[in-house]
Specification:
Order of helices and strands: HHHH
Distance between the termini: 25 Å
Strand content: under 5%
Number of strands: 0
Largest sheet: none
Oligomer: single chain
Shape: globular
Helix content: 40-55%
Number of domains: 1
Structural class: mainly alpha
Length: 83
């Protein structure tokens, strides 16, 4: 599952956490770690408790530097060629 799909599995449209189970949260945290190269910044992998702010900064498109990181990572996952 790519980072966008995982985000939508974990968060609803209003940004609230869904009752999605621990494994989905852990998967999303792992994808955030892959996207940034920062381990342990996105929550506790044992409990599935997320650092919500850090996860949302990577997982959702926003203006500024986070958007660039999001776009690059999304394109790599989708195998989209960016000119």
């Amino acid at each position: 599952m790519n980072i966008l799909d995982l985000y939508n599995e974990v968060f609803d449209k209003a940004g609230n956490i869904k009752n999605c189970r621990r494994e989905k949260c852990k998967s999303l945290m792992r994808e955030c770690e892959k996207a940034t190269g920062k381990e342990g910044n996105f929550g506790d992998m044992d409990t599935g408790m997320m650092n919500i702010k850090a996860v949302k900064n990577v997982s959702t498109p926003s203006k500024g530097s986070n958007y660039s990181l999001f776009f690059i990572y999304f394109c790599q996952i989708q195998s989209v060629k960016v000119n």
